[in-house]
Structure prediction request, 373 residues.
Amino acid sequence: MKKVLVTGGAGFIGSHLVDALVKKRCYKVTVFDNLEPQVHTDGLPEYYNIRARFIRGDVRNRKQLKEILIDSDIVVHFAAAVGVGQSQYQIAKYVESNIQGTANLLDVLVNEKHNVKKLLIASSMSIYGEGLYECKKCGKVKPPLRNLEKGEGNNWEPKCPYCKGSLKPVPTPEDTPLISNSIYAITKKEQEEMSMLIGKTYGIPVVALRFFNVYGPRQSLSNPYTGVAAIFLSRIKNNKPPVIYEDGLQTRDFIWVGDIVNACILSIEREEANYQVFNVGTGNPVSILKVAETLIRHLGKEGKIHPDITYKFRKGDVRHCYADITRIKKMLGFKPETNFEEGMKKLINWAKRAKAVDKFEEASKELKKKKLV
Ligand SMILES: NC(=O)c1ccc[n+]([C@@H]2O[C@H](COP(=O)([O-])OP(=O)(O)OC[C@H]3O[C@@H](n4cnc5c(N)ncnc54)[C@H](O)[C@@H]3O)[C@@H](O)[C@H]2O)c1
Ligand SMILES: [Zn+2]
Prediction:
């Protein structure tokens, strides 16, 4: 049996991967997680799979990592601080957890005794900044981040950086230049680059998966800093309108957590994945307004709750970004299986029973105080 270590394995995505690995019966799974209180308000989550060994530890602690890595064949590194907005003012914490944490892991892999033969890293679509667009005159272009001041409310769409003409969003492939728009994004980019560099230098196969917007059961409904679907759900469940920035027509690529798990397993098991970076999304853009409307409809609150469209700009937000998944399709045979409507229904079935403390207003106040909205 191969021994897999999943850092951050008590979290949303990690716990689903742990379940799938345990189910395959050919892996012995260990989770290493510090049970970050903002994510795990009640300690070890009730969904935790007792067939996986649990070690409470922190990736910021090199000594703990050294002890656990001695006994691992495969490492899946998911432990991270994950709030984009929050990363803009808790800078040291995000850098320590995400960059220093990964540095500790790599330092142990290079300097200590271990059996690790593969490292899977969770990267993020946020490292692109704006997605890729097409200008009729100039072809494919990558516009810079928007810097909208109050009163520019109707000009949400980025313009061509060369001719100032209008742009059409197109799928974003892996070789698109990276323009990070938050400390979180910078940390994810560094994680990816440091891991790939050290992996190639020392012959340890690394795979970096750039997850797009992941949704599904176990997403924290009480953590107001992550996951727009979860934040909206928590609001609607508490009979409050979901709050939308801009006009709601900005788009993202929402991918069901089960599809993410499939991509992770393919990356672990296929040699073709070694030293590759893959987008993991669906390739289909969905507007934020549609997410809000779909959730309201499926929760039976149509006519009772209406999305609150604020026409406000949140600094650093991108207008459109969705995945080009040609590479992972061709190289690993990956195909997303759950479409948006089906996924949303499954999400809601779970959410009906899940605890949702609406902390949106607190979080929103904090962002305002830090001048980010
Ligand atoms: N959810 C998404 O849409 C998304 C998108 C792109 C990338 N990602 C990446 O996927 C990974 C998993 O994200 P998630 O959505 O499951 O988040 P999550 O917050 O549910 O899970 C992260 C886990 O890491 C743990 N953790 C945090 N800091 C730690 C530390 N210093 N030491 C040990 N454990 C620590 C937390 O307790 C938590 O269990 C992260 O690396 C995240 O950056 C997620
Ligand atoms: Zn142009």
User: Anything to note?
Assistant: The CA atoms of residues 39 and 289 lie 26 Å apart.
